[in-house]
Amino acid sequence: MAKKSTVGGKKKKQSKQANVELAHALAVIDGFQVLPIQVPAATGDDDVAHYVYLKRHQAPTTLMEDENRVSEAKRTLFVLNLPVDATEADVRHWLRDAGAIEDVRFHTLEHWQEMYAMSGEEAESQGAKPMLAKKGKLKGRAATAAAAAAHKGTWSLGEIAATSLRPLLDAGSYAHVIFLEPLGLDRALGLTERARRWRDEPTMAKSKEQLPLGLARYQQAYALSRPNPDELEKRANAYILAHEERKREEEERIAATLNLPDEDGFITVRRVHRKRGNTDGKVTVKAIRPEQAQRLAPTGGKGKDVQDFYRFQQREAKREKLLELRRKFEEDKERIASMRANRRFRPY
């Protein structure tokens, strides 16, 4: 039994050394330090390793003019391959041994598809540009939905989902972690010697306080995408009012520029579609042509019935007409024969 435990201990030690060597190999090849994160498995006792890649942030030369940006770049860590449900508390937990963290700025590659084909340095340098965004502002689809909702008091289901559902990162997302001191950045780049746990008890408590994930998140999204009829009616009325307001403002703007000379003294002629008729908002009175009045006038009684409306009625009418012509032809033929017999037929 002692031999078995010794062999098992050697295997564990060898596997641990292999993992460390693999991490260093990846760091040398790709220029990133590999930080393994131990994630509890959904089934079974063995944890699953998720690898996060760390690198010193390299600010583009265009940002070197700002002194504050330079000092910030010297203590900024570039973190790649974040889990989709990672939060700021998770990142702070992984790097808590490195030092105090000032800010964590998440980014996504959703609008940067070309970065997937770039090297690590190119993607990292391109990703430095979104660092100018301030913390707390919406980005991407959430910003689009919020901008559409802010127009004329209307809102959309996407904006409600963006504020009511827990946001998730895209696969391959990255973040910039800004330490208080440059020493924290140096310490963070040396944290690949041992694996870090996904979450501890305080981090789990903070995660439970946030919006739900998994099946609960899908159920919440399903409920939000199907509002009650009263709420839907309010949104529809608000959208219609906003559309009418925009249309009225556009008409007023065009009417204000009619017959007015520009800076060069020219008058732009615009075609105006005038409404023919007078209206009080409820009833409209318009002029009518004589032929239209005759066509709309009642014919008396029940009106004139439409003849031969269907195709089979038209065929029957043609057949009856041919039979009538043939009958008249036979009658004329007999009458001519009778006149010849009586010598009364004089064709010339």
From TrEMBL:
Coiled coil found in the keyword field: yes
A molecular function (GO) term: nucleic acid binding
One Gene Ontology term, aspect cellular component: CURI complex
Name under which the protein is recorded: Ribosomal RNA-processing protein 7-domain-containing protein
Domain Rrp7 RRM-like N-terminal: 29-98
Top-level taxon of the source organism: Eukaryota
The keyword Coiled coil belongs to this UniProt entry's keyword annotation: yes
Gene3D superfamilies (alphabetical): 3.30.70.330, 6.10.250.1770
Annotated InterPro entries: Nucleotide-bd_a/b_plait_sf (IPR012677), RBD_domain_sf (IPR035979), RRM_Rrp7 (IPR040447), RRP7 (IPR040446), RRP7_C (IPR024326)
Residue ranges occupied by any Ribosomal RNA-processing protein 7 C-terminal domain in the UniProt entry: 225-348
BP GO terms, sorted: ribosomal small subunit assembly; rRNA processing
Coiled coil: 315-342
Keywords, sorted A to Z: Coiled coil
Organism of this sequence: Thamnocephalis sphaerospora
Family of the protein in this entry: Belongs to the RRP7 family.
